[in-house]
Amino acid sequence: MVLFAATFLIIPPAHADGTVIRIVDKPHLNFEGKFRDNELAVTLLPNGKLGKLIYGINSAHTTFIIDAALIDEITAMAQGYTFEGKEDLGGKKSAQNWLFRLKITTSNNKVVALPYGNPDEKLLKLVAPSELQYYLKYAQARLESNLGRLVDAETGWVSGRSYLIDQYISGYSDNRRLLTGLSTITSSEEVTDLRARLAIVMNPLLDKEDRAYFSYSEKGAVDVLSSRLKVISGRYQITSSSAKLPITLVNNLDTISVVNISFIPMNSRIHIENINNVSIAAKSRQQILVPVDVVAPGNTLVLAQFTNSKGRLVGKVSKLNITSTVIDPRVAWFTTGAAVLLFLGAVTQSVRRIRKSRV
Predict the structure, then answer these.
(1) CB 127 within 8 Å of CB 169
(2) What are phi and psi of 141, to 5 degrees?
(3) Which of 88, 93, 222, 224 can bridge 175 by disulfide, Cβ–Cβ 3.0-4.6 Å?
(4) To 10 degrees, what angle do helices 208-226 and 189-197 make?
(5) Which of 80, 97, 81 minimizes the C-alpha distance to 44?
(6) CA angle, 68 then 28 then 207, to 5°
């Protein structure tokens, strides 16, 4: 799991001395972990856009402004990758050489981590101001891990504007809330990493087509990840006034999760209890028995969802369709009693009519 540094610096860019070199680019790795294009391999060559920024640079008075998300992509290339189904050994070697040179070039210079993914800070402050610090801390931790040294993390360095349309901003907000909620019930790196990567959709270097592509890729990744920790939807038949439903919980994440489960019936035909403090082992399924009392026969839709320690609903909603074919004994007693009274009333009315007819 990525460990965040305890503190990070927020120093105005005006305080930088000497030359400033910005190492940023648009994202090339989609949310499925595949390279969308192979442009990055070319830019890393000594005469490429990113290669020119570090090859031949020997100044000891340079400030390097770096997007850690870009370094993560280059690190993924250096570990070996495929493009269009073919392994690219040349690109792998270019990435390895570039990273080696980056470490040497920056070793005696100041390094500043941008918010992860190089998001438009102005837009981010409007959409999700609390995430700015998260992206800074995450970027600092990732960059320190890749460079093997301490770095600063500062705001105010992002250049350019993102023109993310309202549709994609709304999608980003929904995805962020979902992952932020999940992060309160699991410490999984999968959730932590994806939450940070959401920022790339606000990278100012993306064009209109790129913004659409990564916004849809982001949604797909969040949907897949959220399905790994959930209550399994299902249909149930109840034939007694009280029963225990076998509810299945899934945790396909890489860490144990401790959850509470909220059950919300959409009508009053049944009463179902919430369940607290259930531990689900990593990469496992677990079945729990949930008490249910039938009040009246019929169909009931129950919404099942995890809650965190503060009672906040998190994750996606699952649907339990319950059909009950019995009546609670108390209801049966009441309805039977009512039927008896109606019968006695009818008998009394009949006796009165007979007496009146004889008079």
Answers:
(1) yes
(2) -65, -45
(3) 222
(4) 160
(5) 97
(6) 105
pLDDT tens sequence across 91-128? 999 999 999 999 999 998 999 999 999 999 999 999 99
Phi-psi region of 118 (alpha: psi -120 to 50; beta: other; left: phi over 0): left
Please tell me the distance from the alpha carbon of residue 242 to that of residue 238, in angstroms, as a whole number.
8
Apex CA 152: angle with CA 149 and CA 156, to 5°?
Answer: 150
As annotated, the residues of the chain forming the CATH 2.60.40.10 domain(s) are 229-330
Phi, psi dihedrals of residue 65, rounded to the nearest 5°: -100, 115
| Spatial distance between the Cα atoms of 292 and 244, rounded to a whole number of angstroms | 6
Quote the CA–CA distance of 231 and 227 in Å, as a whole number.
Answer: 9
Using an 8 Å Cβ cutoff, are 145 and 227 in contact? no
**For residue 40, with 0-12 CB atoms within 10 Å meaning exposed, 13-18 middle and 19 or more buried, which class applies?**
buried
Q: Is residue 202 pLDDT above 90, yes or no?
A: yes
The contacts of residue 243 (CB under 8 Å, 6+ apart) are 291, 292, 294
Contact between 328 and 293 under an 8 Å Cβ cutoff? The reply is: yes
State the pLDDT confidence band at 58, using cuts at 50, 70 and 90.
confident
Cα 160 to the chain's mean position, in Å? Answer: 27
Cα dist from 82 to 26, 29, 99, 175, 267, whole Å: 19, 11, 19, 28, 53
Counting every residue written for the chain, the total comes to 359
> DSSP alpha helices (H): ranges in the chain?
39-43, 68-78, 89-106, 121-127, 131-147, 166-182, 189-197, 208-226, 329-358
For the beta sheet containing 152-153, the strands, ordered from the edge strand earlier in sequence to the opposite edge, are 19-23, 62-66, 110-113, 152-153
Measured in whole angstroms, the distance separating CA 132 from the mean position of its chain's CA atoms is 16
Residue 3, CA atoms < 13 Å, CB-side half-sphere: 3
Sign of CA dihedral 9, 11, 17, 23: positive
Instruction: Give the contacts of 72 (CB within 8 A, at least 6 positions apart).
Output: 142, 146
For the question of whether the overall pTM of this predicted structure is more than 0.90, the answer is no
